């Protein structure tokens, strides 16, 4: 029999759901905080981790998918399992890549995006707004960057904020302008802030270590 690690993981999830009393009490909503945490740790692994970190965190996110699918497979009213999830994903990716699977031609990333958006529009024909499907639970900067892109599709351009900031509305305008600038230059505002915060955290730790070393030195002199 051919070794199938992915199928082994599915079976392990099934057995854990059957036999682990903690796991048996978890539902989809209970899992949300863990999904957010694991996704954040995957981002950290991508941006600052090792290859081993990346492999591990991808596994942790995959486990969340398997967990949700296992819970869903036991739903009485509308069950589906990981095979249904994978089948639906494959069908969607085939539809959205007609230049790979259906004889269309796309020689540039821009042409690929046109085909992708056309396929997505056909799938989501019931949507009435470009904002339909945009999750309000995204981090604020990432949400701003997403909404700016959607706004541009319908010709909406936010007014430039004045440089003077006296209240939170002015600050919100200024932040939105910064995100718009990032988007115009093909930059990721959320990632840029995360990376700058990492630098700041390194500076804080460095200052703490310097202070501790100085205090230790002073004590030796006493």
Automatic annotation (TrEMBL):
EC number: 3.6.1.66
Single GO molecular function: ITP diphosphatase activity
Domain NTP pyrophosphohydrolase MazG-like per the UniProt entry, residue ranges: 28-101
Name of this chain's protein: XTP/dITP diphosphohydrolase
Keyword Methyltransferase: no
Organism: Microbacterium endophyticum
CDD domains, sorted: NTP-PPase_MazG_Nterm (cd11528)
Enzyme superclass (EC): hydrolase
């Amino acid at each position: 029999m051919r070794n199938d690690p992915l199928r082994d993981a599915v079976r392990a999830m099934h057995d854990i759901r059957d036999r682990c009393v903690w796991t048996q009490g978890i539902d989809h909503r209970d899992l949300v905080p863990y999904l957010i945490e694991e996704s954040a740790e995957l981002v950290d692994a991508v941006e600052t981790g090792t290859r081993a970190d990346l492999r591990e965190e991808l596994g942790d996110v995959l486990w969340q998918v398997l967990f949700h699918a296992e819970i869903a497979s036991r739903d009485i009213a509308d069950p589906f399992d990981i095979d249904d999830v994978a089948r639906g994903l494959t069908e969607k990716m085939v539809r959205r890549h007609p230049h790979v699977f259906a004889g269309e031609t796309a020689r540039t990333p821009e042409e690929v995006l046109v085909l992708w958006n056309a396929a997505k529009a056909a799938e989501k024909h019931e949507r009435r707004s470009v904002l339909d499907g945009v999750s309000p639970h995204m981090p604020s900067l990432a949400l701003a960057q997403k909404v700016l892109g959607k706004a541009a599709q319908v010709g909406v351009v936010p007014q430039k904020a004045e440089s003077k900031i006296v209240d939170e509305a002015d600050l919100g305008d200024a932040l939105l302008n910064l995100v718009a600038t990032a988007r115009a230059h093909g930059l990721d505002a959320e990632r840029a802030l995360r990376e700058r915060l990492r630098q700041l955290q390194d500076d804080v730790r460095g200052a703490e270590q310097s202070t501790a070393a100085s205090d230790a030195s002073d004590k030796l002199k006493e």
